[in-house]
Amino acid sequence: MTAAPQTVLVVDDTPENLDLMKAILAPHYKVKVAISGEAALKLLAASAPDIILLDVMMPGLDGYEVCRRIKADPARRHVPVVLVTAIAEAMDDGKGFAAGACDYITKPVSGPVVLTRVRTHLAYRGLLADVATAVELLSVGDTATAADTLAAAIEGALP
């Protein structure tokens, strides 16, 4: 039995950008799309994706505000948010990181860059979950299982 594919939520107000991201990501991940920040927050209220690719410049709620709201939600704050931004905007990446984003991708996007960033942040998220599990096991005195969990996490993280 194979595991269900991980889910990527792509948020962009330009349908062509959504189509491009779907073409890049769909062979590897389940892709959900939202055409606005408001639509993204509604989708997130129903279920959390594994990662979010979020356009910065959108009418209504911009990407920074959407990111802040996601990170303020205890049920969603663990989801990595990668901002997708024009090169000029990338110079102000401090604002995105302050909002809670873990990374950014510049437009026009490159398929290999998008896939590498998504894969990297999903792997990092998985590693953090494994470490959290090991810490929990250690707190109840199950050192053998904790050691096995950490060893598997480290082995899985190595290239």
Word description of this protein:
With 159 residues, this protein is α/β, with parallel strands linked by helices. The chain has one domain: Response regulator (Rossmann fold), CATH 3.40.50.2300. Helices cover 54% and strands 16% of the residues. The protein contains 7 helices and 5 strands. The protein has helices at residues 15-25, 37-46, 63-72, 87-90, 93-99, 111-139, 143-157, and strands spanning 7-11, 30-34, 51-55, 81-86, 103-107. The protein has a 5-stranded parallel sheet with strand order 2-1-3-4-5, with helices on both faces. Helix 3 links the parallel strand 3 and strand 4. Helix 2 (37-46) runs parallel beside helix 3 (63-72) and helix 6 packs antiparallel against helix 7 (143-157). The longest helix has 29 residues, at 111-139. It is globular. The model has no long low-confidence stretch (mean pLDDT 89).
